[in-house]
Amino acid sequence: MSYGLDTLRGDLFGGVTSMVVALPVALGFGIASGMGAAAGLYGAIAVGFFASVFGGTRSQISGPTAPMTVAIAAVIASHASSLAEALAVVVLAGLLQVLLGVSKIGRFVAYTPHVVVSGFMSGIGIIIILMQSLPLLGAPGATGGPMGAARALPAAVGGIDAGAFAIGAATLAAGFLWPQRLSRFAPGPLVALAAGTALGVLWFTEAPVIGPVPTGLPTLQFALPPVGFLLHALPPAIILALLGSVDSLLTSLVADAVTGGRHDPDRELVGQGIGNMAAGLIGALPGAGATMGTVVNIRSGGSTPVSGVVRALLLLALVLGLGRHVEPIPLAALAGVLVKVGWDIIDWRMLRRLLRLRREHLVVMLATLCLTVFVDLITAVAIGLIAGGMVHARRLEQLELDSVVSVPLLEAKLFEGDETFKEADPLAARVGMVALRGTLSVASSHRLVSVVGLDIRQHEGVIFDFSDTVY
Question: Do 322 and 448 have their domain in common?
């Protein structure tokens, strides 16, 4: 594929517009994670740059995403006693992603059952809405995750900050009402943030704001943790790696659907892993493929990794002198942007079809959703994958049984009309045949014995036909 002036023009415009989309979201995710606004911006730069350079999806835009933000917030709250330990988890997760890609396992990550992904993403959306409801009302963020936010919500409603709530409501309204056709020229999140910030600067000046944000190049913040901590860090790192991988590859599929191209899943995981390792080394937020930024990039003309590199470099240029310009942004405005993001993440299409889902799929989805919100992400993913695997095994069992043919009274069929068998009992069991066609696995072994056993129990002989069996 030749790279000409038209392609460069499209990549430049795609990089600019996707940067505009990324700015408010990165700031919001940085604050929501507990690592600070600068961590969100640095994460958008590090993950976005390295995933574009080394990744396998030409037009994909990467950076902090809602699932990764919730996951790292949970890591900070539950699995690390310091920021250094949390960053070690991020680096380890990135390394695991690289290993997944090098091992050619990336293509299998996309086989995660859709009901598990749907339940998990809807749970993530609910968590974001719950946790951002407090700053939306002018209250400080609560500890204890989504349940801590839910417990603090009544007090926040009782002591509502009218100015902060007005800013948050205006931001939400702008986000929901901004016409889709205008998003190409002015992305909805930026318009919403600008509306909320204008209210805060001009009228509600007492509302809580971001405050001082570090500027300049990030410094190396990674410190090698004790060997004993690495074993403790492995479970959350695995979840972070799997979550980032699934999130990125799903976005890659969206990019393929829009462009008609095909991504390389293994190379994509290598790029995402390198990006997350870099983010962990500089104290930044981990990330993954960002669906909204990717679609905006493609619609704006971005078609190669150059657009992602342009976006990262523009964000870096802004960060070098941005601090004093973002200090007056109200926290309620960022909360409004993130509540809209959380709302969009919830799989409303699947929720509207709940009553039409097969019972086992309904159970898996709701279990994953509830465990995500009420327990933790690790438990939700683990149990969701196990339950999804069991549902798949049950369906495989039925498909395999449907391929088995049993002929219980074989000789009656073969010698039909022969005088020798006229006087014989037509129901006497002498010889039967069982044809095992296609593939068979342990999933159907138990049912196969019980079902076919009824046909051949009284037979003197049984012929097993393996001519169409796939080994």
Answer: no
- With respect to residue 354, please indicate whether it lies within any of the assigned structural domains: no
| Structural domain includes residue 11 | yes
Residue whose token pair is 């095909």: 262
- Other C-beta atoms closer than 10 Å to the C-beta of 162 total 12
How far apart are the two ends of the chain, measured CA to CA in Å? 42
Q: Is residue 364 a contact partner of residue 391, using CB atoms and an 8 Å limit?
A: yes
Dist. CA 371–CA 378, nearest whole Å: 9
Question: How many CB atoms are located within 10 Å of the residue 224 CB?
Answer: 10
Task: Please count the structural domains in the chain.
Answer: 2
Structural domain contains residue 374:
no
List all residues 6 or more positions away from 293 whose beta carbon is below 8 Å from its beta carbon.
18, 21, 22, 61, 62, 63, 311
What's the farthest any 2 CA atoms get from each other in the chain? 105
312 and 414 assigned to the same domain: no
Asked if 35 and 328 count as a contact pair (C-beta separation under 8 A), the reply is no
Q: Both 339 and 427 in a single domain?
A: no
E strand map for 355-415:
404-407
Contact yes or no for 443/391 (Cβ under 8 A): no
Alpha-carbon gap, residue 20 to 14, rounded angstroms: 10
CA 327 to chain centre: 31
Q: What is the pTM of this model?
A: 0.69
Judge if 191 and 254 occupy the same domain. yes
Within a domain: residue 338? yes
**421: domain range?**
403-465
In angstroms, the Cα distances linking 177 to 66, 172, 322, 436, 469 are: 22, 8, 28, 59, 59
Among the candidates 325, 348, 371, a domain finishes at 348
Tell which of 317, 348, 379 closes a domain: 348
Per-residue pLDDT of the chain (471 residues; tens, 9 = 90+): 577 787 888 888 788 778 877 777 888 888 878 888 888 889 999 999 999 999 988 889 999 987 788 888 888 777 656 778 888 899 999 999 999 999 987 777 666 777 877 887 788 788 878 878 888 888 876 666 677 778 888 888 888 888 888 888 888 888 888 887 777 677 777 788 888 888 888 888 788 777 766 667 777 766 677 777 777 888 889 889 988 888 888 788 778 877 878 888 899 999 999 999 999 998 899 999 887 788 778 877 788 899 999 999 988 887 887 666 767 878 888 888 878 878 887 888 888 888 887 787 788 888 888 887 887 666 777 777 777 777 766 666 666 666 666 665 555 555 555 555 555 555 555 676 777 766 666 655 666 666 666 666 666 677 777 776 765
